[in-house]
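Issue 218. Parser rejects a valid record. Input:
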Amino acid sequence: MNEQVLLEPVRRTRLREEAAEQIKALIRSGQLRPGDKLPSERELVNQLAVSRASVREALRMLENMGLLTVKPGNGTYVREVPIDALVDPLASWLLERKEALLHLLEAREIIEPQIAALAARRATPQAIQSMEEALAEAARQAQAGNTEGMAQAIVTFHHLITEAANNHILLRILSTIADLLAESMQETLRIPGRPGKSLANHRRILAAIRAGDAATASTAMRQHLRSVQEDVLAEIG
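Output the parser choked on:
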């Protein structure tokens, strides 16, 4: 193993899944090669900043996937595996739907920044309060590790922004793709680190709308959508 390769402390609630994903990413990138020995359990605990139990569960998951082999009394080693074993269900989903998802993000980037700008000019205090409640619910679902619940809350947040824009045509357009938005969000929010980025981005959008700053609201929405696009492209390599 390259001694310069460092793992990062895990901050998400599903600790074993992210710990496993970090190790898997090193295998996928070639930084961990077939035959390489993993650091000791204690070293993994220290680098990942998780419990010994989480490390053991992560290693067991990767062993069950055929990526690692445990040699009792000797250590844990990377196995020789076919490349398709390194493609997880999320990456497969994104790859299969890449064109549709990128087209959806492209369409949203054309429409939603202007919707956010209109909302900044027209939102009532009651509308802003409803947005705050939807975003607070998204944060609660993120804390619980519930990507489906978080996605539903964020779809609600975007719907409330469109309602606040007070344009019935735009509301009808966004309503027709609500199911597609929910499905795509559920999957993209499974990308490691995406829930935190999403919350931060949506808080910036809300802050601009609350301040009545149309230009900043539009920019924040555009930056959010481009951030999603970058993470999707990075996830599918």
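Fixed in the parser; the record now loads. The mean pLDDT is 86.
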